[in-house]
Structure formats: structure tokens, C-alpha cells
Amino acid sequence: MRRRSLLAATAALPALARPALAQDANRVLRFVPEGNLNNPDPVWTTTTVARNHALLIWDMLYGLDDTYTPRPQMVEAQEVSDDRLTWRFRLREGLVFHDGIPVRGVDCIASIQRWGRRRPLGQTLLSLTEEMTAPDDRSFAIRLKRPFGLMLDALANQVFVMPERIARTDAFTQITEYVGSGPYRFEREQWVSGSQAIYTRNERYRPREEAPSFLAGGKQAHFDRVEWRIMPDSATAVSALGNNEVDWVQQPQADLLPLMRRNPQIRVAVNDRIGVIGMVALNHTQPPFNNQALRQALLPALDQKDFVTAALGAEPELFRTPAGIFTPGMPMANDEALEVLTGPRDLARARRMVAESGYAHERVVLMAPTDYPATMAIAQVANDLFRRLGLNVEFAAMDWGTLVQRRSSKEPVERGGWSAFCTTYEGLTVADPATHIPLRGNGPAAWFGWPVSPRLEALREQWLDAADRPAQLTIARQMQRIAFEEVPYLPTGQHFNPTAYRTSVQDIVPASFPIFWNARKV
User: Signal among the record's keywords (predicted)?
Assistant: First the structure.
């Protein structure tokens, strides 16, 4: 009642005061993210919400443009030696962190090293690096053991540059400072996990004098303040959007789209050209999914259409099946061994395979996020599938932040561990072997589930050294066949997530995730 009284009082203000209020409102963006910002370290966690947060406050050395080509961001110039072993980079003049300290080459080196320990392309780059040096404050150099043709692709793979003192934090430990040089500051003292995150415009930021192009180009910050308002319930968020209490809902629930389309003040858009891939991660370090025969037994009964329709409803433009190991529509996508997903679904055969695998009724703890409706729907389908196959399932529902914390545990399920969880991975990340984190088979250094696959690792190295795209595709086909033999995870289909915003919000950069620069309110 008190809030309604305040709104009524605001409506009764004299007309002369309203233009000033409207002008102030246009400088504030009220945004509902896909989930809670529980873990704000984009290196320690692979969550997309942490990455979206990172794009606001940290700048990058390179960014992908809308053709997915690396373009310089913090870098002013680069050169490579004739033998392609030494790369030299010079930073743009005037780059300053939020605390007023200039960005230096040593900051870049420390950031690359920390990022590199947790990302596939980064791990490859570090393994090939002989030395990184900073000849002066505005330069750094990387000397390689052998040529690496994906150097710029690696540095465009979301290397967020932090001050050296922060970047020296171990990659497996969360940072406690959030100081960057990007277009917005993170107001940590106003951050309340589960409620809000606040960002204010960085007056020191100097955007490139270029048009924005996906993650590249000029990053113009038109808002004085960006407010993330955490609303786990999609209906509440959509209602707030309709009442002009928020400006942008990142990922509304699919069954609410018809309601929003009827409101002339709301635009529903599918800005995502690549999509995300749904998946069920499996823990390879303990029973029962350390058993390859059991993992294989899941495939004959897995129907991707069940997963995508549960997550996105009956709107065919929002999903695609089948989805193999690499993102459909991208160059490495192929049909090798895809019949394991496209052939007739056979529950009886799958149940026989479960019995023949030696499954001993071990408990399966399936984690599901309560605050991500689409992912929760995927988890519910997975839960039903596991139960129909005779697995002893415990459906463990929790908020996403808790799930992210728990999935790092390698303890047995009796001591708080886990067996499986559902998530989505952005299509651009899993489009090829270079950046495909869930496909890594490097055990303790792999993605959550920690699969071990010498065959996949060897083929990945071959792919990185392949002479051309046809050679890469041949290797990608081999990798997909092996992946369906070893089953590092279960792909559940390709999603194209809709977004919704007030028509007063304009010039949003099209992407599968929110990009805040260039956007404005009118």
C-alpha cells in the first residue's frame, strides 16, 4: 500500500516537473537478468550471468564482431614476427581502471594467465607459450614454442582484463574485488545477491571511434545507471515490464510471449542467431555415470523434442532438433553418428542396456535450478527419463547460485556431491573444438563432470593444427562419433531464447545475451 501511495503521489506532481523526471528516467535502465548474480567472477565460473556482468565492467583485448571475426578493443596495434613465434601488442592510449590507475601490459599478462587456466583456448595458448613479457606499460608480448594460428581468436575469447593485483588470484579461487576499465562500474556496496546489482557509467571510459558490432567496435554507454533487478518468477517480471516498472526482461518464459505481444508498449524479439545448446552434464568421477555403458544406455530413449518443447513451448522458431555435439548452423556441425538421436526412440532397448551395464541402483542426484524456468523444464524431462529407465533418482531443486557452488564438488553424493545437472551453453562457445568446454576430456582440468578422453583430446590438437576448414570438419566428424560413444554429456536440443523490452528501449545490439552499450531509451 505504501508503494502504491508513492506512485500516486508521483503522478500528482505538477506538469512542469515531469520533463525533468522523464529525462532522468531515460538515463536509467531497469533490467531483469536471466538469473541471480550469485558468483560475479567470470573466470572462476562459466555461468552466462557472470559473463553478462563482466561485459559491463571489464574491457577486453579483442572482441568478436558480428561476423565472429576478432577485432582489437583495448589493443591499438599488433605485430607478429616472420617465424610467427613472437606476438607484440600495444594498448590504446588512455586506458584507465575504475580506481584511476592506468592499464598496463602486466595487467594484461596476469589476466591472460588467469583466464587461460579455466578456458579451453586459454589452456592451449598457455601450453604453447614460452614467455610473456611487458616491455613497457603500454605493451606486452607473447613468445610461443610453435606457431598458433588461433592467437587472436583466443584473445577474443572473453579475456577480461583486470588489475594485476586481482588477476593474480588463483583461477580456482573467487576474486573479491571487481575493478575494471569497461564502460560501467560495479557498485559492490549496493549489490544484494538475490535482489539487485547496480552499475554506474564510467566517465573515464574512452570508447573506440567505431560503430558497435557484437562484442567489438565502439562501446557507447548511454545510461548513467543500469539496475539489475532479480526476479526469479517470470510472470512477476513480465507483469513489471507491462506496468513500466522495468524496461527489459532478458529471458521471459515462453508461455508468456502471447501476453506480451498483445501489449503495444512491449517488443518481443529473438535477437539470437546462433542459439544455445541444452545439455545434461554427467559426473564421470563416481557411480553411476563413471560407467560408460550406462551413459550409452541413455541415448536410445533420449528425445530432444521432449526437452525443447518443455523449455520453450510449441513455437517452432524458438528451437531446433536434432542438435549434435557442435552447434547446428555453424561450420563444424555434422551428421556423423547422429542416428543415435534421430532414430526411433526405444525405451525398452534403453532399459535393457541399463540392466546390461551393471547399474546397481546407485543414487542419482540430479540438480535443477529453481530460478531458471527453461532449464528447470529440461531438468524435469531428464528426471522423468531417468526414472523411466529405472534409475534411482533424487531430484535436487535449488537456486542457480547454489547449484553453481555445488557442481564444483567432487565429493560422493552421500557427502553433498552430485551425479547430473542441466544447463545451456551458448552456441558460439560450443561451435567448434577450440572453445567447446563440455567436450574437453582432460579430467581434473575439464568442465564440471571431469570426463577423461585421450581420443577427444588428441583430435582436438589435430583440429587446432588442421590446414583448412575441410580438414577441420573431417576431424569434427570423428570427434562427434567418439562423443556419442563416450557420452561426456547429453545434448538436449538448440534453443533460441526470446527477449522482451519496452518500445522506449532502442538500438540494442543483436546477440543471444544482453549487450548494454549502444542501447538507449527515448
Answer: yes
